[in-house]
Amino acid sequence: MQADIDRVLIDRQAIGRRLDELAKTIAEDLSAEATGGHGEITLVPILTGSIIFLADLIRRLPIRMQIRVMSVTSYPGTATSSRGASIEAQLTKLPEDLSNNHILVVDDILDSGNTLRLVNETIKQRNPVSLRTCVLLRKTIPSAMSFEVDYVAFDIPDEFVVGYGLDYNDYYRNLPDIVTLKKHVYAGA
Ligand code: 5GP
Ligand code: MG
User: Counting atoms of ligand 1 from 1, which one is nearest the CA of 49?
Assistant: First the structure.
């Protein structure tokens, strides 16, 4: 696995430092919502890429919260570009009625915006009290930069990255750093 790594883009220490900052801002914003009126704080992580980010983020958020996962597929198997997004209903645990919930969507990476567009539309139909979105990574390409999100941990160049939850063909999610892979990994895909 280590032999497949081309470059480390963001190492684990840099991720940790940035999450300290980001979590402080998010905790302030969400606490303000919670004290301002009614409603549960509900985090909606998008499976599977956000799991490590989510785990590290929520342990830095000292607030009462629920977690309701959503599953969306956009990169089937060995694809390295988006093929459109669809919700996987069997894995999604989002209540039909969110009128008592402040939602924070947590995703791994903003690329074409198809995933978050679909997720936001689906959530809005369920009438949340508030809706915010948070991504670990955002590619510095027009489709991603023009898409409105509330929190971004890192902006990265338009390269295919893996690690820290992000996969290629469902592998490499357990790499602690965010990296690019050597060309030979994609050969034949
Ligand atoms: P979008 O729908 O914005 O095009 O892409 C979002 C989803 O595509 C992400 O949640 C992620 O699963 C996948 N994706 C986009 N770019 C990358 C990338 O560079 N690496 C990996 N591993 N997945 C990506
Ligand atoms: Mg994803």
Answer: 12
Q: Whose CA is nearest to atom 19 of ligand 1?
A: 160
Domains of the chain, CATH where assigned: 14-24+39-156 (3.40.50.2020)
108 lines ligand 1 (CB under 6 A): yes
* Atom of ligand 1 minimally distant from the CA of 46: 10
Indicate the SS3 state at residue 99: coil
Q: What is the pLDDT along the chain (189 residues), one digit of tens a residue?
A: 899 999 999 999 999 999 999 999 999 999 988 777 788 999 999 999 999 999 999 999 999 999 999 999 876 677 777 667 899 999 999 999 999 999 999 999 999 999 999 999 999 999 999 999 999 999 999 999 999 999 999 999 999 999 999 999 999 999 999 999 999 999 877
Three-class SS state of 184: helix
Cβ pair 110, 53 in contact under 8 A = no
- pTM (predicted TM-score): 0.95
From the CB of residue 163, how many other CB atoms can be counted at a distance below 10 Å?
26
